[in-house]
Amino acid sequence: MQFKINRDHFSSGLQQVLNVVGTRATMPILSNVLIESTEEGIALTTTNLDLGIRCNIQAVVTEPGGITLPVRKLATIVRELPNLEVNFESSKNHQSKITSGGSLFRIMGIAKDEFPPLPTFSDKHVFLFKQSELATMLKYVSYAQSGDETRYIMNGVYFNFEEDKLTLAATDGRRLAVTSIKMEIGENNMGHLILPAKTVIEVERLLGQGDEVKIAFNERQVSFEINTDDEEGDNGLIGSIELISKVVEGNYPNYHQVIPKEIEQ
After folding, report:
1. What is the DSSP string of 46-66?
2. pLDDT over 70 (residue 176)
3. Which of 55, 93, 158, 160 is most buried by a 10 A CB count?
4. Which SS3 state, helix, strand or coil, does residue 182 take?
5. Chain-centre distance of CA 130, in angstroms?
6. According to DSSP H, which parts of the chain are helical?
7. Which DSSP helix (H) or strand (E) runs through 34?
8. Across residues 52-81, what is the average pLDDT?
9. How far, CA to CA in Å, does 100 sit from each of 80, 81, 83, 88?
10. Predicted confidence (pLDDT) per residue in 222-252, tens digit
11. Cβ within 8 Å of residue 145, ≥6 positions away
12. Hey, CA dihedral for 220, 237, 134, 204, is it positive or negative?
């Protein structure tokens, strides 16, 4: 694989996918970013098996292919390159060469075939939102989610799509935050999910880069397709950022029981 890319665009793309990678990955491949060539540029993908993310970056691809490289090491190198123009080349022995100005770096990687693919699933429920609306709702409730791993069912934000409204709720057993927004929800499209706390952090970080976000989910997984609207090409992002996560399995506590039906003045 061979391509030419803007240093700042490359660095921006790596920062989008870096947070998903844990500091203590159970397998070496989970510390790597998958780099693949596309028609318009390159795709960057990382995963920790519970959460995965993919974004597309502008680049001039002269030779298609793919490779995985240690994402933290690569991000550090790219950030410190001297020139804006960066040339990237990978060989069949999984070694990559990065050149910029008078700098040259060689990094050993792992074959892309060993990288676990992001899950694909049938969309049982699909909804479209304004990014600003979802960001505001998460801000109102995410602070109340539990950090106690023994109470895993509360380690996240509860999404409930029913009765022509979306309700978000979070609780740690001592405090409760609930917010709702009216929206059209067909009878066949009603559903609910518990979004894990780690995923909540990533969604909050990514929102605000564009206008719309699409949420699709089933009983076990959820995806967020976050539009980037980079019309000026400032960060090099193309299209949407895709975030796919497992959901917390189980029944969320009946928080309605602790909400007073009447408030004394």
Report:
1. EE-SSEEEEEEEE-EEEE--E
2. yes
3. 55
4. strand
5. 17
6. 7-18, 71-79, 131-141, 197-206
7. strand 32-37
8. 96
9. 10, 6, 6, 9
10. 999 999 976 656 789 998 999 999 999 999 9
11. 154, 155, 156, 157, 170, 171, 172, 197, 200
12. positive
